[in-house]
Amino acid sequence: MPLFDPQSLNPGVPRREVLAWAMYDFANSGYTTVVLTAVFNAYFVNVVAGDAPWATLAWTLALSASYLLGMLAMPALGAYADLHARKKPLMGLVTIGCVVGTAALALAGPGDLALAVAAIIVSNVCFSAGVTLNSAFLPELARPEALGKVSGWGWSLGYLGGLLALALGLGYVLWAQARGLPATHYVPVTMLITAALFALAVVPTFTTLRERAVPVAAGTLGSVLSESTQRLWHTLANIHQFRDFGWLTLCGLLYQGGLSVVIALAAIYAQQVMNFGTAQTMMLILVVNVTAALGAFLFGYVQDAVGHKLALASTIAGWIVMVLIAGLASGVGWFWVAANIAGLCMGSSQSAGRAMVGVFAPEHRRAEFYSLWNVALWLSAVIGPLTYGLVTWLSGNNHRLAILTTGVYFVAGLLVLARVDVKRGRRAALGSTD
Predict the structure, then answer these.
(1) pTM of the predicted model as reported, rounded to 2 decimal places
(2) Which residues are CB-contacts of 277 (< 8 A; sequence separation ≥ 6)?
(3) Residues 95 and 202: beta-carbon distance below 8 Å
């Protein structure tokens, strides 16, 4: 089956445009892989915060602040993007913000807590907004019956982008370590490599991707934001009309609460519990990115074949298995097994969630619904890592207890998913007119 199969695309959508759309996933994945997962989080704890008892909590608080800011701003911006067909220009602005914020992390050294926190907040808010706006293009490109596989194409290509960013960074780290250079030298360089790769790889997206939405409103910025906010509150007040989207959003809030712990704290767990060094941690994440790419690509086809709900449920069950292995096993070999299970589940669960939103979102309100979905994900990225950070702080730095505690989020998400009726949710989306 050819990649970017034309039969999976809406009429008039060329394969090169889908590739350009997927290149945004490729470009921005270096940020999550290198900054949030493999390198800067551990550097923040060990170097910037001086490995203080509150260092892990400080990292989770910085991430929480960024997601809270995104929660406040993005829903109104998503509604604005729908009303005025401005997804692409907004995506350009936040992409610049993420690139600049990532490059600014290179300036953070020992004790530069304020600078590091500010750069993380700016870069992560802009990153999250870009993901939201890019996801809203998915239903414009893919046929309804192929949302899973097309979403999977994007996620799998994204993990390859993360793999490239991590490989380039790891190559420099190994070169620097061989010459006796400290982390304060090579970690800042990996931030610059990540920012440069993002800026270069995203060019095809902005030169090829088309904005197919038609503007339905006009006015000043103030009136636009007011109208967008009113529309958002109207959606929330009438969420009973989209009950299955509501249940899916709650499910996403819960299971992504656990997933966000893995993204934000994997390197810290590896170094604090398994005594991994920087290069060994980067190698672990590199291998995990390979399994994540395979999981996202292959699972997209599985999702369209077995159904969105069953597919997502199976990935959440996989997360529960991963948490148990990581929290209870003591050997490094078992930790590698858990890490690769996480990779398979990460790509498939994120792809599955994005595709299901496309099923439940009315055609004229896609950016708004993706914004609401991502608000739930941002809230999960607050409560998940914050739960982990608080447990480590209160338990005397017991990271095993912390990872097992976050497994509760996966169990709860699986229970909530049982309430979702995909056919009923799709009927609600097709019947929406306001």
Answers:
(1) 0.73
(2) 271
(3) yes
Q: Closest by alpha carbon to 144, among 432, 433, 434, 422?
A: 422
CA distance 268 to 276: 9
Give residue limits of the domains in the chain.
9-207+226-431
- The structure tokens 């390198």 sit at 39
Binned at pLDDT 50, 70 and 90, residue 218 comes out as low
Each residue of 174-195: pLDDT tens digit? 999 999 999 899 999 999 999 9
State how far the alpha carbon of 192 is from the alpha carbons of 108, 122, 185, in Å: 12, 16, 12
> What is the DSSP secondary-structure string of 150-215?
HHHHHHHHHHHHHHHHHHHHHHHHHHHHHTT--HHHHHHHHHHHHHHHHHHHTHHHHHH-------
Q: How far is CA 53 from CA 65, 122, 395, in A?
A: 20, 25, 11
| Chain segment 338-377, per-residue pLDDT in tens | 888 888 888 778 778 878 888 888 877 777 787 788 778 8
Q: Are 330 and 434 in contact (CB under 8 A)?
A: no
CATH number of this structure's domain 9-207+226-431, picked from the four choices 1.20.1260.10, 1.20.1250.20, 1.10.10.10, 1.25.40.10: 1.20.1250.20
Question: Rg for the chain (alpha carbons), in Å?
Answer: 20
Whether 382 contacts 330, CB under 8 Å: no
Average pLDDT taken over every residue of the chain: 84
Q: Which tokens belong to 275?
A: 């005594």
Q: What is the DSSP string of 139-160?
A: HHHB-GGGHHHHHHHHHHHHHH
Helix (H/G/I), strand (E/B), else coil: 9: strand
Rounded to an integer, what distance in angstroms lies between the CA atom of residue 7 and that of residue 407?
39
- CA separation for the pair 294, 153 (Å, rounded): 10
| Residue 30 · residue 180 · CB < 8 Å | no
Which ranges of 329-398 does DSSP label H, i.e. alpha helix?
A: 332-360, 366-394
SS (H, E, C) 34-56: HHHHHCHHHHHHHHHCCCCCCHH
